[in-house]
Amino acid sequence: MITITRAPPYLTVQDDGRKRSRAAGVPRGGAMDRFALGATNAVVGNALNAAVLEWGLAGGSLRFDADCTFAVGGAIAAITLRDAPVAPFTTTQARAGDEITVHQLESGRFLYIAFHGGIDVPIVLHSRSTYLPGGFGGHEGRVVRHGDVLGIAPPAGRAPDPGFHAPGELTPAYTAAVVHVTRGPQADLFDESAWEAFLASDFRVASASDRTGYRLEGAVIPNSAATLPSEAGCQGAIQVPGEGKPIVLMADAPTVGGYPKIAVVSESDLPLMSQRQPGDSVRFELFTIEQSQRAARRRASDLQTIRSLAESSLRRV
């Protein structure tokens, strides 16, 4: 078990979300940065979709009530265990009574902490993820608070030895200035000047941004239809309301919407978009569907390589 000794303002349990509930109006949800979810799980010997902590907004601390292997990843943070820094995407061993402290998030928005065995909370609609708007899933359907105790499931196997590290070239370049997009389903409603403004502008993530959507400040993108009949949406879709300020739909976005969608963030770059904090800038670059698919396959291959390297480290012992 782990005990939250000082909770940040935002702390939830997340896995890779609800893949079977969109027809019932329930978003996929789950980890905002699914690459970081999978990679932290891989380096502690878990299934890639095991439940982890998604940590944001500020520092805090937690205590291990038993020996435990863990890993952190995603946002860059100053983290210590027994006064020593904790490296990202690295297998780390804690002893019973140890406390890890997240001093601050230095860059990025969401930090992930995976524990060997995975966080043990009830499965709701095929997932352990917290869906805060609905008040279900995760730990009692809410943010994790000071004093909460979370169970860790019995591990299915042995974790890699402490010190195993996912190679940096296999993890996303979170500081990249450009996020790649493909044309959206209503791309033709936007004329040449609108596309020029969209692709040539530096946008900033607005403070009014959360797991539902990231509002963007900067250039105004005109379109010929302010609203349309509702249709299915997905994480990464960039919709443009009547005032012309884009919104990037994120993990907890509604399953349908009626604003025209100029573009969709490429799956491979969703981790980069997810880790943008309010005030961070982003510029979009157009990909073809084929380019986006190749990039997604490379990202998936990188994650599987991390998993294979972690498994190979076990076989060498």
Structure commentary:
- The structure is a single chain.
- This protein is an alpha+beta fold and 317 residues long.
- It has 2 domains: 2-170, no CATH class; 178-286, Beta Barrel (Cyclophilin).
- It has 4 helices and 19 strands.
- The chain has helices at residues 34-42, 192-200, 270-274, 289-315, and strands at residues 2-6, 10-14, 52-56, 60-64, 68-81, 84-85, 92-94, 99-115, 119-120, 149-152, 178-183, 203-205, 213-217, 231-232, 237-239, 247-249, 256-257, 261-265, 281-286.
- The strands form 3 sheets. Strands 1, 2, 3, 4, 5, 6, 7, 8, 9 and 10 form a 10-stranded antiparallel β-sheet that branches.
- Strand 12 and strand 13 form a beta hairpin.
- It is globular, with a radius of gyration of 20 Å.
- The two termini are 27 Å apart.
Amino- and carboxy-terminal Cα gap: 27 Å
Fraction of residues in helix: 10-25%
Ranges where pLDDT stays below 50 over 5 or more residues in a row are none
Categorize the overall geometry.
globular
> What is the CA-based Rg, rounded?
20 Å
Beta-strand residue fraction = 25-35%
Count of distinct strands: 19
Structural class: alpha+beta
Mean pLDDT: 94
Number of domains: 2
Main sheet properties: 10 strands, antiparallel
